[in-house]
Write a structure and sequence with these properties.
The complex is a heterodimer of chains A (about 150) and B (about 525).
Chain A (H helix, E strand, L loop, with lengths): L1 E5 L8 H12 L3 E4 L6 H11 L3 E6 L4 H14 L6 E6 L6 H7 L1 E5 L5 H34 L1
Parallel strand pairs in A: 1-2, 1-3, 3-4, 4-5
Helix pairs in contact in A: 1-5, 2-3
Chain B lengths: L30 H4 L24 E3 L7 H13 L4 E4 L3 H4 L23 H7 L10 E4 L5 H14 L9 E3 L4 H7 L6 H18 L7 E3 L1 H5 L4 H21 L4 H4 L4 E6 L3 H21 L12 E6 L11 H15 L4 E3 L12 H17 L13 H23 L3 H7 L1 H18 L27 H16 L2 H16 L5 H9 L4 H12 L9
Parallel strand pairs in B: 1-8, 2-3, 3-4, 5-6, 6-7, 7-8
Helix pairs in contact in B: 2-4, 5-19, 7-9, 9-11, 9-14, 11-12, 11-14, 12-13, 18-19, 18-20
The chains are: A alpha/beta (about 150), B mainly alpha (about 525).
């Protein structure tokens, strides 16, 4: 499992990003941390090149409504749809439904236990792969039946 | 589950606390040498003989971000009308990192954590109608851009026939901790230090009333440091600036007359009191022993403390009022000079007016009602506090020695030495909270299961559109030939390694934008590549 912890935009608060990166590593994941001041384009490039399963986005500057959709759109533009997005930082409750609609699987604010975030991401990835398998199976069965 | 664990008796910084402290803990303690008198070397007991007894409490400040210069201006005028003597100009991230509001990197960030400043026109809007004769201190979180902010303020004052030195501008101007933890850097460290020292030199020569630097441990602490790391990294940064200044022939006494240390105020009460006391003693000794300064005034460390944001919880936010009260009491007992108290809702969003008022009242209650301010260094002589002060001092000296042997603060930052220590400690802390070993009320104990409250204060994205319109108008109306000339002079002076102060003042007076100036400097110095250590 490969995890990218990212800091898009200009936000300099990265204590949480680094701590969660370390937690994923301790849980056995391969982790890349972007460092600060990354553009959505740069994040999408890493996701493609490194075949990332989980993209963690950390934002405390209030720019989440702009930057999170941009990151997700950029990754999709690269033709990648099998990625789990998790978001951490200071995210007002009222913004969460909109962000989930854009494709964020889970939002984790201050006070969240590290294992809660890590376990959630692992489960989401497992579910995504299982879903994909069923989809593939369905496709191949449909293909078979059309052959009959 | 947590109850079954063996109770550990450690401070937030990991110091093992004893059951009881006795004279045995201060066996070789020479009070005359280690404490001295209040107001005198080594200033352990405070930098003033009377401290707060003569009614001069610390300067009480509030940090508030407002989206546009016009909104911030209304707020500043209100503060002054209410009898305030100073205010902080919080800058948005693009301004702190040298991007104009219309730059692609600024998307989503304009006006979010502070006011957007693109050009002198924004400064004119920011300060319109402010009665400067009533203003004692204007604080700005300017670091990578500090020389440009200096230029904006000087250019504004000159245009309005005000002596710039008559306004007490307070610049943070501490670039090294940006690479370590705060993240608003633009250029590589050597160029960053050069520009910070330019500000020291310029202020020493022309603006003696300004505070040209507040060497900051606050952000270091909030990034995961222990109390001794906070002080050691701060002192090491200071030494890097001062050594550079001395090498350049700058009179550091003149240049740093009003300088401050900007430190955190954490929850561990005794440890924090000990920290402020140790900081003063260490600073005085460095000034005396390293720089040969024997006058007492430059040996006095002025401390600006700010309650630690990382201590605030989004759960049960009203509990934060109590946390901030304890932090404020530690700072008062520790003898600080300027103080900012956080608002209880800051883990949820930018603070509301109500929460900001409570934080100011907290300071006033501690200042006027607690009795803590009636005795100078009220905890001095406590076996526990003196033992902790000595312990912190000892560990700081150890760490300082390590940094010095590795080639100094900048070299260590380039190698990621401090960054690694901070990341390790932050992770250790989070694990101890997750394991229930460290109790955080409302988070891992005494929880109520209530969902986190929605944020009450948000900033719209319209500010960027307005700022962009303003920029377009400005670029059409200004004398673009003068701008070009001024920018090429900035470039020439930067390549010649001259002090950039006067060239910056001309550039901003010509209405060159912050982004344009930083682009020119990036051409000379390059851009810093962020580290990926975790």
């Amino acid at each position: 499992m490969k995890v990218l912890i990212s800091k898009p935009g200009l936000d300099g608060h990265d204590r949480g990003a680094k701590v969660i990166a370390r937690a994923f590593q301790d849980a056995g994941a391969e982790v890349i941390y972007t460092g600060l001041q990354t553009t959505p384009e740069e994040i999408a490039d890493i996701v493609e090149k490194e075949k990332i399963d989980v993209v963690g986005i950390s934002l405390l500057s209030g720019a989440h409504n702009t930057l999170v959709p941009k990151v997700i759109d950029k990754v999709k533009e690269h033709g990648i749809n099998d990625v789990v997005y998790i978001l951490g930082g200071i995210i007002p409750q009222q913004d969460i439904p909109g962000l989930k609609e854009k494709g964020v699987a889970g939002v984790f604010g201050p006070g969240t236990r590290l294992d809660e975030t890590v376990d959630f991401a692992f489960e989401q990835v497992a579910a995504m792969h299982a879903g994909k398998m069923i989809e593939d199976m369905g496709d191949s069965m449909a293909a078979k039946s059309s052959n009959i | 589950m947590a109850e079954e664990k063996v109770r550990k008796h450690t401070t937030l910084s990991g110091y093992e606390l004893k059951r009881v402290y006795t004279p045995e803990d201060l066996k070789d303690f020479d009070a005359a040498k280690m404490l001295g008198e209040p107001g005198h070397y080594p200033f352990t007991r405070g930098i003033r003989e009377e401290m707060y007894r003569d009614g001069k409490l610390w300067t009480m400040g509030q940090y508030a971000g407002f989206a546009s210069a016009e909104e911030a201006n209304r707020r500043f005028r209100y503060i002054i009308e209410q009898g305030g003597t100073g205010f902080s100009v919080a800058l948005d991230l693009p301004t702190q990192m040298g991007y104009d509001s219309d730059h692609p990197m600024s998307d989503g960030e304009v006006g979010k954590v502070g006011v957007a400043i693109d050009s002198l026109a924004d400064i004119e809007a920011l300060f319109k109608g402010i009665p400067f004769e009533k203003v004692r201190q204007i604080r700005t979180t300017a670091n990578a851009n500090s020389i440009i902010m200096l230029a904006f303020y000087v250019a504004f004052a000159r245009k309005n026939n005000i002596d710039p030195n008559s306004i007490g501008f307070f610049l943070q101007n501490d670039i090294l901790k940006e690479y370590m933890c705060r993240g608003t850097y633009i250029f590589p460290p050597a160029a960053g230090v050069k520009l910070s020292v330019d500000v020291l030199e310029y202020c020493g020569k022309h603006l003696p009333n300004w505070t040209p630097i507040a060497v900051s441990g606050y952000h270091i602490r909030d990034a995961g440091a222990t109390a001794s790391m906070e002080l050691a990294f701060t002192l090491a940064d200071m030494i890097e600036y001062f050594d550079t200044a001395v090498k350049r022939g700058v009179d550091i006494v003149a240049a740093t007359r009003n300088s401050y240390f900007f430190l955190g105020a954490q929850l561990d009460f005794l440890e924090e009191v000990a920290k402020y006391r140790a900081a003063r003693r260490l600073f005085a000794r460095v000034m005396k022993e390293r720089y040969g300064i024997n006058d007492e005034e430059p040996q006095r460390l002025k401390i600006f403390a700010f309650t630690s944001g990382s201590a605030l919880t989004a759960e049960q936010p009203m509990n934060n009022i109590v946390r901030v009260t304890m932090q404020t009491m530690a700072a008062a007992a520790g003898g600080i000079q300027t103080f900012h108290a956080s608002s209880y809702d800051e883990a949820i969003s930018l603070p509301t007016q109500e929460a900001v008022t409570v934080s100011l009242r907290t300071q006033q209650i501690v200042g006027y009602e607690s009795g803590l301010t009636e005795t100078v260094d009220p905890l001095g002589g406590s076996y526990a506090v003196e033992a902790l002060t000595n312990k912190i001092e000892h560990d700081v000296l150890d760490l300082l020695d390590k940094i010095e042997k590795k080639g100094g603060a900048m070299k260590c930052i380039e190698e990621g030495f401090q960054q690694r220590m901070l990341a390790d400690n932050a992770y250790k802390y989070q694990r101890s909270v997750d394991d229930g070993e460290r109790i955080v009320v409302g988070v891992n104990r005494f929880t109520d299961g209530k969902p986190i409250e929605p944020a009450k204060f948000t900033v719209s994205d319209e500010v960027r559109i307005k700022q962009t319109e303003k920029l377009n108008k400005l670029k059409a109306a200004r004398d673009n030939e003068r701008v070009k000339r001024a920018l090429s002079e900035v470039e020439r002076a930067a390549r010649a390694d001259e002090n950039l102060g006067d060239y910056m003042i001309e550039a901003v007076s010509a209405y060159a934008t912050l982004g344009e100036i930083c682009e020119v400097l990036k051409g000379v110095y390059g851009k810093y590549t962020p580290m990926r250590i975790f």
